[in-house]
Design a protein that fits this description.
It is a single chain. This protein is 28% helix and 16% strand. The protein contains seven helices and eleven strands. The termini are close together.
Length: 232
């Protein structure tokens, strides 16, 4: 199996056109690392991509004394993976035909770049129209908002889905910083949104679409994607 993991290239919270920033962001380490190691253990060939290519920014909030898990420590000591991370492939160079599934980790970065990235949207539409699994966790499902299917309907229309909730965004005091609330937009775009209690694992599988609510859902999303691929 060939798996594509797409990470954000966006490093700042808030608008940056005028040089203003509300702080740093990027991808959430746990949401990338936990699935990555599960995919690796299952023998998948993994390609890492990002809109700009090269080293994707890390959300500093995902590497604090409170977030230190065995997987996080494994990632930080994995010299081979860290080397690989410095050379993610630009999304514009990716051919969707080459991959069996795609996975999007979260972190707030995708709220600014991947949400409107034309290459990401085209990739998702190809996957949807060719019956290939799509998986995303936490803020990762933001990539689904503007993709359409072969009939011209929004990809999310009538699909069971989850993602970072409004109450979780409020708990970390970023509701006024993010460009929109993900839960609201998933509903507006026709998704049948559900959630668990804040910070509890919640994974939703609707056919070939797999989404997770928050960092605690990362491993569950990866396992669900592996199950879907095994069935195919």
């Amino acid at each position: 199996m060939k798996l594509l993991i797409v990470l954000t290239s966006h490093s700042q919270l808030g608008e940056t056109q005028l040089g203003n920033s509300e702080g740093k962001t990027g991808f959430w380490i746990e949401e990338f690392a936990a699935p990555y190691y599960l995919f690796e253990q299952n023998g998948y060939t993994i390609t890492l991509a990002s809109p700009r290519g090269g080293q994707p920014p890390i959300d500093p909030a995902s590497d604090t004394p409170q977030t230190q898990t065995p997987v996080l420590k494994q990632y930080k000591n994995d010299t081979e993976l860290l080397k690989k991370m410095k050379h993610t492939v630009p999304l514009s160079a990716i051919d969707a035909v080459d991959y069996d599934a795609v996975f999007y980790p979260g972190g707030h970065g995708p709220m600014w770049d991947l949400v409107n990235d034309k290459d990401s949207i085209a990739l998702l539409e190809f996957f949807r129209n060719n019956n290939k699994p799509i998986a995303a966790v936490c803020h990762g499902p933001v990539v689904l908002l503007h993709a359409i299917d072969a009939q011209g309907d929004l990809l999310l229309k009538g699909k069971k889905v989850t993602g970072f909730s409004n109450t979780e965004e409020a708990a970390i005091k970023l509701t006024k910083v993010v460009p929109f609330l993900l839960e609201d937009q998933l509903k507006i775009k026709g998704g049948l949104y559900s959630k668990a209690a804040d910070w509890k694992a919640h994974v939703v599988v609707d056919g070939l679409l797999i989404t997770g609510q928050n960092p605690a859902s990362s491993e569950g999303v990866a396992k669900a994607l592996i199950t879907v691929l095994e069935k195919k």
